[in-house]
Fold each of these.
Amino acid sequence: MTAHESNERHSRRLGTNESAVRRRSAGQHTVRRHNLALVLGEVAGPQPLSRAGVAARTGLTRGTVSSLVEELIGAGLVSELAAARGGPGRPASPLQLDPRGPAGLGLEVGVDAVGACVVDLTGTVRAQRTARSDHRDDAPDAGLATVAALAREVVAQARLPIAGATVALPGVVTADGVLERAPNLPRWVDVAVGEALRSRLGGLPVRPGNEADLAALAERWAGGPPDAVVVSGGIGVGAGVLLDGTLFAGAGGRAGEIGHVVVEPDGRACHCGGRGCLETVAGLEALLDRANAPDLDALVATHPDAVRAAGRALGIALAGAVHLLDVPAVVLGGAYPRCGPLLLDAVRAELDARVFSRSRVDVRFSTLGPDAALRGAATTVVQEVLADPGAVLAGNGVGAAGTSL
Ligand SMILES: [Zn+2]
C-alpha cells in the first residue's frame, strides 16, 4: 500500500470534514511526487534538456520546473552544467543526472561465487568485485558474511552515497523476500536474506531477487526484447520471463525455473528431488561431468556432441515455454554464450522442429556477460530512485541515500 492509499483509507475511516482536508493534502503531496518523477525522467532521457526544455516537454510551468529542479539538485540527483554560449538569446544550462548522487549496490550469492558492484545514477559501474566462494556445503552465515565483506569493499571504493541494495540469489525468492529454496544450496532453506544482510550492512535496505530474473531485467534495460525467456546458464539453470517488458515472477516466485523442467523422464536425479530435469543435462557441472571434460573451453573444443545434446535439451524445455507463453524471443545468457554456435544452432533446430507456428522464435546469445544478474541487481535500485525521487527526498525511499557501510 502506498502512503497515499494509506492516507485515503485512514480518511475514509474518519468520515469527517477532517478527512477532506487530509485528502486534499495527500493529493497535493502525490502531485508533487509525481512531478518530481516526471522532471527527473526527462533529465534522464537521451536528449540533454535545460529547465525550459523540461517545461516544454512536460507542460509544467517554468516556475514549477525550476522549483522541482532545485529540490532534485539539493538531493544530489541532478546537476546543472555550465550554460552553452554562442547561440542567440539567453544561454541554456543543460541538466544531467548527477553521477555523485545516490547509487545502487548490487550483490550476488551464487552457488560457487559472490559478487558486489556499485552502479551510479547514470548507469555507470563505479566499482565491482567478484570472488570464488563455494556455498554448497555451508550454512547461509558463511556466504552472507563473505558477500557483506565484498559489499563494504566496493562501497568504500566507489565513494558514493548508497540508496539501497538488491541481492541476486540462485533460488526461489518469495514476494516477501525470503529465499524459500535453492536446489544447489541445500542448507539455504527459508532464509530471510534481505534482513540478514541489512543487519550486516549498517541498516541498509537489501532486497533479495532471483538471479535469472535480475539478469532478464538487465537484458531488457540494455535494449533486449520486451517479450522473452532469458535463460541464465551456470551450475544451475534458471530463466527470467519478460512479458510486455515486465518481469513475470509468478505467484510464488517460481516462474522461470526452467532448469527443473523435465527433459528426460527417466534421467538422472536432480538436486531439486526430481529426475531428468534440464539442469541434469544442460547445467554446467552436469555437462562437464557427462563429457568428462575439465572445463567449458575444453568441452566446446573436444566434445561437440555433448554441447549439441545440451542444446537439444534446452530446445525441448524452451519449446514448452514458448507454447505456454507465446514469447517470440529466447536469450541465452550466463555461461551459454561461451558454448558458441554449436549450442545456438542446436537450440534453434529444436525450436524450429517443435514449435508449430509460422513465425520463427528468435534465439540469440546475451551480450551482457556473466555479471548480468549483478548489474541488474544494482540497476533495480537506480531504477527505483529514478521512478520515485520523492522517496529519496523524504528520506524513506529505497535507502537513506547517504548510507556508509
Ligand atoms: Zn530439478
Amino acid sequence: MSVPGCPRCTTPVARDGAGVWSCPEHGPVAPLWRAPEASYDAFAEHLVRAGEFPTYLPWPLSPGWSVTDVAAAGEEGAVRATMTGCSGTSDADGPVDVLVVTEEAGVGLGARVAGTRHADPGPGLGDGPPLATVRVEGQGVRLWTVSTSTEPGEWDRSVLAGEAGGRWLWVVLRPASAILLLRGEWILRDVSGLGAPLVDLPYGGPHPLW
Ligand SMILES: [Zn+2]
C-alpha cells in the first residue's frame, strides 16, 4: 500500500509541489490506498486510515465467504471513500463477488469499481421504484439500478446505488444474476468502530476485478 493510485483510473498518483495528490488525467484526487491482498493486518491498517469514515461489509458474512478486497481514498483522518470486496459462492450463480463502496460526491471510486462512466451514479438515480432496500445501521436504504448497458467492457455485473448517511452507496454484484441475492433481508454493517473483534472474519483470495 506504499504507493497510492488514482481513485478514478489505474494511474499511480504523486504529490505536486503544493503537497496535493494529483493524477495526470484527473487532476487533484483523494489518493487511493488498496491493500495488495486482503488480510487481517491490511484491514486493521485500513480502519486506522479510515478513522470514523464508514466501511461497510455485508453482515453477517455467509459461511464460506471471505473478505477479498479493501481500499480507502484520502489521507488518514481525511478519507472520502472506502470500498470492500467479499467473495463466495451461491447455489444459483457459483462464484460471486460483492463490492460495496461508500463515498462523498465527486470522488469517483464507486464509478470505477462499477465500471460506469460518470463519477457519481448519475441524474437518473431515484427515478422509478428502487430495486432493493438494504439495512444500513438500522435504516432502510433504497438502491436503484445504475445502467451499465452503454459502457465499454462486457464484464457481467449488476450495479446499484443509493444514498446513506449523506454519501453515495454503491453495491456491485458479479455476475449480474447475483442481484437476486438482494431479494432477502440484506444488512450492511459499518465496521469502522469494530477494531480488534474484526479478527474473526475470514480474509484472502484473489481480488475481485475492477
Ligand atoms: Zn486518474
Amino acid sequence: MVEPGTQRDDAGGRFAGRVAVVTGASRGIGLGIARRLADEGASLVLTARRMDGLEEAAASMPAERVRLVAGRAQDPEHRARAIDVAVRELGGIDVLVANAGINPVYGPLLGLEHDAARKVFEVNVLGTLGWVQAACAAGLGDRADAAVLLMSSVTGAVPSPGIGWYGVSKAAVAHLAVTLAVELGPRVRVNALAPAVVRTQFARALYEGREDEVAARYPMRRLGLPEDVAAAAAYLCSTEASWITGQVVTLDGGLLAAGGAA
Ligand SMILES: NC(=O)c1ccc[n+]([C@@H]2O[C@H](COP(=O)([O-])OP(=O)(O)OC[C@H]3O[C@@H](n4cnc5c(N)ncnc54)[C@H](OP(=O)(O)O)[C@@H]3O)[C@@H](O)[C@H]2O)c1
C-alpha cells in the first residue's frame, strides 16, 4: 500500500522533464539536493569550482541527464556559461537551487577584515542574486512551475558567536528570497531553506570531536544530514508547493524552538 502523500505523479518522478541548475553540487547539501532531484527525474546542471569533485558527484547519476560546469559562483561569466548549458543542452531551465556559499572568517565582528567580509558577500549574497538574474534572463519563468531555492541558515535568524558576518550574509539571503518572491511572482516561486548544523565538510569545525554534545542541544538529538535538506528542497521546488513562495523554511531538528543558537 502507498502511504498517503508519498505517491508520485508517474514513474519518472516529480521532476521528470524539468531542468534544474544546482550550485555547489559536488558535495554536502548541494550534492544531496542534486541526487534527490536526479532520482526524481530532473535533468541537471551541477556547478562547483573543481571539476574532479563534480565528476565524482555525478558518477552516481544518469549521465544523459547531467551536465557539469566548473567555476566560481561569484563569477558572472561562469554563471552565464552554466545557465547557457542548461538552455542549449538540456532545453531550458525550470528550477534554480543557489546553494553555493562560503564562510572563511571566524571571530567577533569588531575584528572583521573588510576584504574578507566583501568576499563573503560577493559569494553568498551577490553571487546568489547573480544566479537568479542569469536564470531569469535565460527564460526561467517562461515555462509553468518555475522555482528558485536559496540557501540561508539559522545563523541568519539568531546570532551565532564567531560566525556573525556569515550570519549577516545569510540574513541577507533570506531577505533576498522574500523580496524576489514578491518581484518574480506569479511566474517564479522563490523560497529559502535555513538549516542548522548539517553534517558536511563545511560545518565540520562546529561538531567534530564533540558531535554527541552538540546534538544534545537539538530536540531531535542529532545533527542534520544532506538528505534532510534535500527532501525539503525537492518539495519546495516541486509543483506540490505551487502556493508556497516568499518563505524561509527552518530545518533545525527543533534547535531554535529549544532556544539554541547554531
Ligand atoms: N553544513 C551546514 O551546517 C550548513 C548550515 C546552514 C547553511 N549551510 C549552507 O549550505 C550551503 C552548502 O554548504 P555545505 O555544508 O554543503 O558545504 P560543503 O560540503 O563545503 O559543499 C560546498 C559546495 O560548494 C562548492 N563551492 C564552495 N565554494 C564555491 C564557490 N565560491 N563557487 C562555486 N562553488 C563553490 C564546493 O565545491 P568546490 O570546493 O569544488 O567549489 C561544494 O560543492 C552553503 O551555502 C552553506 O552556507 C550549510
Amino acid sequence: MSSKDWIEKDYYAVLGVAKTAPADEIKKAYRKLARESHPDHNPGDSKAEERFKAVSEAYAVLGDDAKRREYDEMRSLFGSGAFRRGARQAGQPGGGVPFDVSDLFGGAPAGGGRFAGGGISDLFSSFFSGGAGGGGTTGGAPGPARGRDVETEVVLDFHDAVRGVTLPLTLRAPGVCDTCHGNGAKPGTQPRTCQVCHGAGVTTRNQGAFSFSEPCRNCQGVGTVVDEKCPECQGTGGVTKTRTLNVRFPAGVGDGQRIRLAGRGEPGERGGPAGDLFVHVKVRPDEIFGRSGDDLTLTVPITFAEAVLGTDLRVPTLDGAVTLRVPAGTPSGRILRARGKGVSRRDGQVGDLLVTLEVVVPARVSDEARAALETFVAQTPPAAREHLDARVRRFD
Ligand SMILES: [Zn+2]
Ligand SMILES: [Zn+2]
C-alpha cells in the first residue's frame, strides 16, 4: 500500500462513516459491509468481490488507531486537494486566490483577518487543510467569511502631516481573473485533466521501500492542464487588482503612526463583512522644521552681540512668519515660544513653535572687530569658573 493510495482513497467513504466516527462504529460498519459483500455470499459477482477488497483495505487502516492517525494526517496534508484548490476552484467563492506568502504575511498581524491570531504553524495547517480558501473540505457550504485586513504604507509630506491631507491610495491585491473566471483557459476552451496525475495533482515516486508523494510536475499540482492560455492572466487564473481609495489623514498625524480604516480592507465572502485597512504613516522630514509631539521646533542662529544687546527676530512658521523678541542678555540655547504656531490636534488644541537660539561664533574677525573685542574684554569680568578651578588645581 503506497501513500498514493492513502491520498487518493477515502476510506471513510468506503465504510460509510464520518471522519469523526468512534472506533466501535467503524468496526460495526466494517462487519456489516464485509458480510454483505463477502465472496461466499456473492459467488461469481466480481463487483461484490471488489467491494469486499475495498472494505477490507479501508478497515485495515481505519481499524488500527496508529494507522488511522497517520492516514488522517496525510489526508489533511494532501488528500483535500490543497494543491488543486487554488486554481481549480478559484472562480467560486471560497476557492481563494493563488497562494501568496507576502500577501499572507502582510495580512496577518493586523488582527481579525483570515489568518490572524495564529502563528506560522496555524497559518500552514489552515492552508493545508484547505482553509486557505475559506471553505472546509467536509460538511456543508462554508459560511460567511470576513474579508482580509490589508496593510499599506504611505509617505506624507511634512506639511501635509501637520495640517492634514486627503490622498488617493492605490491598493494592489491578488484577485480572480475576470476573463477566464480563474481556470486559466482562453475563453471558449476548457482546461483538460492532467494525463500524468489523472487529475490528482500529486504523483508518487518509489524509492526503495519508500514512496514519496509530490505535487505533479506536469500540471504544477493543479490537476488540470490548459492548452490555450487565457490572454488576460497568461493561464495563471489570477490577476493583480488595483483599487483606489481616498484616505483622509488627520492633522497632526505622526511618523510611525498606524491608521485603521474599518471596513476598507478586502471585501468579505458570501455576505461576510469587509476587513480593515491599516495605513502605516511615514513622514518626510522638513529641511528646517522638526517636530516634538504637537510642537514644531526650529533652530535660529544669532550673534553674540544680538544675544547681549537683544534684538527682534523674524522667523518662519509653517505657513507664514512671526516676529520674536530676543531680550538683552539672552543665553545661548534659550528656547522662545511662538504660541499656536505648531501642530493642530484633533481636539482643536494647537501646539507651539519652539525656537532654539544658538549663538554662532565667527571663525575670523577683522582687525577692527578684534580691537573692539579686546576693549570689551577689558571692561568685562571673566566668566565664573571658580568651581572648576578648584578641581583643576588638584592636578596642577
Ligand atoms: Zn498532473
Ligand atoms: Zn484569465
